[in-house]
Amino acid sequence: MPELPEVEALAQDLTGRLRDRAITTIHVAQFSALKTFDPPLRALEGTLVDTVGRHGKFLDIDASGTHLVLHLARAGWVRWRDEMPTIPPKPSTKSTLAARVVLDDGSGLDITEAGTRKSLAMYVVRDPLDVPGIASLGPDPLTDDFTAERLAGILRAEGRKQLKGVLRHQGTIAGIGNAYSDEILHAARMSPFKPADSLDDEELTRLHTALRTTLQDAVDRSRGLAASELKGEKKSNLAVHGRTGQACPACGDVVREVSFADSSLQYCATCQTGGKPLADRRMSKLLK
């Protein structure tokens, strides 16, 4: 799933490609992806793209004051094409193509989603805050006002909730998903199950530093990369996420996993839990 660093890099890349170009038409191949009806999709036709921005994990294409907002969900992506086919795509639930944005010079974007679980969402709105998911976002962790004190207030308000879940909840902190929450907690040397309100001052400073540094470093590495290069860049720089069974780059211990119904987390016991493996109830049941 694209998270804050990848969506930020997509926004920067697409701003350079789309700015001052006119949108000729938008073809929708997966009708379930379009979540709004007013303004209509055709309201974007003939508009000039002013900029492309980000709200958490939402991508926002601002075209003459009308916004095409995308949430790429788990398996969505944006692919640039220098030359679009002249024949419009046929609506299909079997194709990976969800929508196609055609520009005045014949280039454009293919918005795709792999797999059978269709969660990608498109919104055409006058104001990004008209998108419920954007209106309910927590603070952006890379803004100047996201201080250690602000993080402390968030953690106190979350009480005994586990840090992993607090970091991932978009209404609490915007833009962090499964991968970067693993990476942040590894960099902070903290258990994903540690209660949010249990951090002392030193731990709070360490978590705030790890959070800001992990995300900013990923943004910096991604800056200037084309959309086609972003997934590989992300994967190649992860320390623990998606690396179950491999060596921790910090200490050499094996990276372990805890599985859930539809996701998993990765961590290093030596770095994060004092050498104690975390209980994995799903795996325990399989071994019985």
From TrEMBL:
Cofactors, names only: Zn(2+)
Name of a matching Pfam family: H2TH
Record-linked CDD domains: BaFpgNei_N_1
Xref: InterPro entries: FPG_cat, FPG_N, H2TH_FPG, Ribosomal_uS13-like_H2TH, Znf_DNA_glyclase/AP_lyase, Znf_FPG/IleRS
Catalytic activity: Hydrolysis of DNA containing ring-opened 7-methylguanine residues, releasing 2,6-diamino-4-hydroxy-5-(N-methyl)formamidopyrimidine
Residues of the Formamidopyrimidine-DNA glycosylase catalytic domain: 2-120
Residue ranges constituting the FPG-type domain according to the UniProt record: 239-273
Keywords: DNA damage, DNA repair, DNA-binding, Glycosidase, Hydrolase, Lyase, Metal-binding, Multifunctional enzyme, Zinc, Zinc-finger
PANTHER family: FORMAMIDOPYRIMIDINE-DNA GLYCOSYLASE
Family, per entry: Belongs to the FPG family.
Protein name: Fpg/Nei family DNA glycosylase
Species annotation: Nocardioides fonticola
Lineage of source species: Bacteria, Bacillati, Actinomycetota, Actinomycetes, Propionibacteriales
